[in-house]
Batch of 2 targets.
Target 1
Amino acid sequence: MRQVHHPEVGEISLTVVMGALSDPIRVGLVRVLADGRERGWGELRAPVAKSTLSHHLRVLRDAGLTRTRQEGTRCFVTLRVHDLRERFPGLLRAVLTAADEQDVGLQVSVQESPRAAVS
Amino acid sequence: MRQVHHPEVGEISLTVVMGALSDPIRVGLVRVLADGRERGWGELRAPVAKSTLSHHLRVLRDAGLTRTRQEGTRCFVTLRVHDLRERFPGLLRAVLTAADEQDVGLQVSVQESPRAAVS
DNA sequence: TAGCTTGTTCGACGTTTCACGAACATCGAA
DNA sequence: TTCGATGTTCGTGAAACGTCGAACAAGCTA
């Protein structure tokens, strides 16, 4: 569809990342991707219109939290676990732990599909 | 002036905290308070109008990041280091480290004053 | 009491964010 | 080539945010 931009590791900004994580749906997406496995866009389930979901995924991507790969007409998303660890040691773990305790982002899930995300 | 509200430790919300940390000035304030010492409101220096500074300090307070104590006509602010560690283990350190590396919030400083913040 | 200091609140302004449905672009399949 | 599936983009509101100056409230100090 288009060639999206992903910031370099060194360009990932703290405040932008914090802003990206200030929305429950986006935290939910991060949780769902936290195991590092690649997920198909279409597998992601959130209680919002698809244009809104596209918006949230864009915010995460622009912030440098996720990476989007295109394959034909569909997209696959991954959390940039390695990059995040490098840029913000300890942050991801802290956020995931807190999100877990506070049940943030439970509205988001993945509809596991047979031929999706070949890990 | 008024009786401000501070959330309990258990009420501090991840997404609200992340939102509070998504502004450079607020991150700067957190940095300046990071040593745990109490600071006088008037000591805080930031390149914004005092009403704006008041707003930022309120956001931090409402999010549960800081505590404000009043003494006569002046206020003293502290970072809730202990509470934050309890609620979000590892988060504060990660944020401070990243802020340090990225020079976030350098616009904020403290004008050390003689009789201020008796640690 | 009058006045000063300190910080909050208010109202206004422009920007950004989140949400939606509709339209669009692209690719694979029929 | 036509059709369907998949996401993005656009246009539009409503709400939230960051900022300011002005007005205010509360407590010292003279």
Target 2
Amino acid sequence: MWGMQPMSPAPDDAVSPGQAALARTDPRLPLHARLREVIAERVRAGEWAPDQPLPAESTLVAYYDVSLGTIRRAFRDLVEEGLLERRQGSGTFVRRASLTASLFRFFRFGTAGDGFPQSRILSIARQVGTQTITSALGLEAGSEVLHLHRLRLYEEKPVLVEDIWLPLPLFEPMERIGQDDLGDLLYPLYERTCGQIVAAATEELTVDVATAGDALLLQCARHDPVVVIDRVARSHDATPLEYRRSRGLARTFRYRIDLR
Amino acid sequence: MWGMQPMSPAPDDAVSPGQAALARTDPRLPLHARLREVIAERVRAGEWAPDQPLPAESTLVAYYDVSLGTIRRAFRDLVEEGLLERRQGSGTFVRRASLTASLFRFFRFGTAGDGFPQSRILSIARQVGTQTITSALGLEAGSEVLHLHRLRLYEEKPVLVEDIWLPLPLFEPMERIGQDDLGDLLYPLYERTCGQIVAAATEELTVDVATAGDALLLQCARHDPVVVIDRVARSHDATPLEYRRSRGLARTFRYRIDLR
DNA sequence: AAGTGGTCTAGACCACCAC
DNA sequence: TGGTGGTCTAGACCACTTG
């Protein structure tokens, strides 16, 4: 057998939709890679919510007509890729982004207290996106976006100044959110109000010097070094959902990396 | 059977040394994890040189008395961990560190030319290690170390100033190396002259402002922002081999990270 | 108790590499 | 040509989670 579907009418049964989907993938690839693609496609299409289990291994074995080991290999690769997570006894689930690895974690704060970072929204308004903004969000030049300006504090002391831009047809509900509902965590809010789930992000770190505005908000001197973090957050199907630019005092920044 | 070795005298044969080594590991762990530990230990002990293949799967199946799938799982995890690499048709090998992911890659240079970075050794001398240096290298306070001072350039323009400290009984041959032999790549030189293989490194990135010395060597103004990279390089058995501090112009620095 | 993923085994054929 | 790792299958039992 072995990765081949009989193209002539099978004597016993018609091909299942699963086998048909597999047949549409590149036949030069190993079966586990083709299976992985098919499943990843279904996940990205939003077929399963993050809290709902995917079909069990045994179900998929029958549906795609592959062996258990092949299903497990595909799942293992998808877990490694970060798309799925598996819990013994419960099932296989679409993974929410945790984003705990964010560069934001690498700002050391005055005391080693375990308090939560706080947020203060300074303004929220529509604007016409600049070239930088629209190209980061994959929009046409001149598109309207929603702009949030906020300050992040830790134990009452300012740590980061953030500008956040959201594509507008999609994030209209955010405009009508009261200041009080704009808590510390934006991503769960995006999911609740706009049904948009942040699955991944790319951050880029550079160093600049403080502008007059930075100096005022971060309580530092002009021309003090600041770290700039540019982030583009995306959904599972890679649609840009948010463009964010954060500026923080370089003096409090420290980043570690392990090389092999 | 199943992860159990008969403790009473077996009727057919004595246990092999491989089975004995497995028996010494934590029996609560899955067999593939125990096997992985045993093999990692042999690699770290230096049993195989980086260019010499490990025993074939089939050999290890007999030696450890486990199934092929279990060997493959252990190998796969060790590849993922970065200790081994596998080449179809050739064998399984101990991996040399490439360290191409080094933060040095993240300095943008004036032109997008594909020239190689160059090095210029400014000095090389013994010194008594400071507390920072000896603790980074895991030496006793007051130990002697070898200090290299060098400048890294790209297309004739200075990019990084580096201070490098090496533990001294181990790296004595480096002291007698002529300036001409101190080419661009230090790690192959360590292997050739001192038999020390760098397998991993930890880097820590912070931001500072240029000292008078930085300004002179990097051709910038005092108090310009600089990026500081602290690196500790280690052998496969985690012995610190090198402590290095690099300083480069923050203006030319850019770092990207993908979050999931 | 039922269902899920996790571990382990055994055996087959394929694709690649070096001699 | 012989040996290596890569893919695929089939089937067993274990450990965990949920009801």
